[in-house]
Design brief:
Layout (H helix, E strand, L loop, with lengths): L1 H20 L6 H15 L5 H32 L4 H5 L1 H21 L8 H23 L5
């Protein structure tokens, strides 16, 4: 049981964090209250349109990153499983959960007044997960990195 908790607690907690990021607290309007001043400070001559473009880009990178990390944590849990069916098919299980959770996350946002669900964001989430799985897969095929 201890090994199970050690393997599955990180992806479970990260899934909760992803859901928290999908609340009103992290809506475009709320993140602009600290990102806009930061972007203006970093790039004093940036236009309002430039700040909005950068803000949107940072938010999209956030989608990719959230699910890259989630896939990494899931893959580690599956690869550490005692069950051969989970361990041997870790790529499939990881991508299946990433795809499902990306969809569920966007559906969740449909019920948050300041948010909206987006198929594009789900695809971006899935792409982040695919990148993590690809990295782990190819590194496991060539563990010395050479």
């Amino acid at each position: 049981m201890t090994q199970f908790l050690k393997n599955w607690t990180p992806p479970f907690l990260w899934a909760i964090l992803i859901s928290y990021f999908s609340t009103d607290t992290f809506s475009f309007a709320n993140t602009s209250s600290f990102l806009d001043p930061f972007l203006h400070w970093m790039f004093p001559g940036i236009s309002v349109e430039g700040r909005e473009w950068a803000h949107a880009g940072i938010r999209k990178l956030g989608h990719w990153t959230e699910f890259f990390i989630f896939a990494f944590l899931l893959a580690q849990a599956f690869r550490s499983s005692k069950r051969l069916t989970l361990r041997s098919r870790w790529v499939l299980w990881t991508l299946l959960i990433i795809a499902c959770y990306a969809g569920v996350d966007e559906i969740h946002q449909l019920f948050v007044p300041s948010r909206s669900g987006s198929l594009k964001d789900s695809l971006l989430d899935f792409l982040g997960g695919c990148c993590a799985v690809s990295m782990i897969f190819f590194r496991s095929k060539n563990p010395d990195g050479g």
